[in-house]
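To whoever is on call:

I kicked off a structure prediction for a single chain this morning and the downstream step that reads the tokens threw a length-mismatch warning. I double-checked the sequence; it's 353 residues and nothing unusual in it as far as I can see. Pasting both halves so you can look.
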Amino acid sequence: MTKQNVVVSDTDSQILNMAISVAVSNSTIFSAAAERPPIAPGGYISISRKRLMNLKNLDIINGGERITSWVDSMKASSPTHIQSTTCLMKGQSSWMLQHPSALDMFEQIIEASQGKQIVMFLDYDGTLSPIVEDPDRAFMSDSMRNTVKKLAGCFPTAIVSGRCRDKVYKFVRLAELYYAGSHGMDIKGPAKGSKYKKGSQDQINSRSKSGEQQFCLSVHFRCVDEKKWSELALQVKSVLKEYPKLRLSQGRKVLEIRPTIKWDKGKALEFLLESLGYANCNDVFPVYIGDDRTDEDAFKVLRERGQGFGILVSKTPKETSATYSLQEPAEVMDFLQRLVEWKRQSVRGQALL
């Protein structure tokens, strides 16, 4: 099953339309023992406003966490414009001391990577493309695509996204990259192999043949008034309780429904490093750039390995395991262009020796 999106928004009268349609298909993810709820024509489950009103007084619990805690978590990972401005004014300076700009620290970063193979890992939404109201229109610019193409010519480069692999490939359209979709549950290497690969191409591509691991469903609430988030969370969790083998997590103005398996972007990073032949090497320097809470799993892995570093893309201070920061995709492109230029100069210098 591939990843599907559900986009939720307020109506013109600013009243949330409380009928979410969740796309489902026949999948072994769902418990065979649990009876599935009735599916409407076209393969959708509809939750009506009337049903929601009947649920509002219930104390829905999932994994010991009440709905209010989920709303608090949604707010923390998806700050509003007003909250963002307040955070910038109050905590930006001290936060930047802990997570300095990767552009300002570029020379130090290069010095730390000397004698090691740099391996690049990039999130897509909010990192290579801007965050937009319609997730199906999160296009990357031609200049960003050209920069990533040049980057892949200098270093092994992977896109690690919450989107399904096919969807993110349609956005990026670069065959020379590694693609890890659905938070790393679906991984495939370059179409024509890679000059950097030490491991087996079959080993990399086999990750996408594991059946149950090709599913992730996202509920985007970028257009929903913050006052309606609790109702939205209640509605989504009312659907989720029908499927005990699925779990709910949240990212940047998105709720994500995934299988209850121990796999995330951090494990995807480790899998790719192992497949490339760098599992137990001291001469590898992984760099992971991402903007979302789900990228924290990869940042934590790099800290635990004591190799490379993570870069958080954010204009607002937030708790993170990343070492450095960049404010927006434009700065990400600047950083990647500097890496490419440094590598090319380094190669030219070696050729003259």
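Update from on-call: the warning came from a stale cache, not from the record. Cleared it. Sanity check on the structure: Residues 83 and 316 are 9 Å apart (CA to CA).
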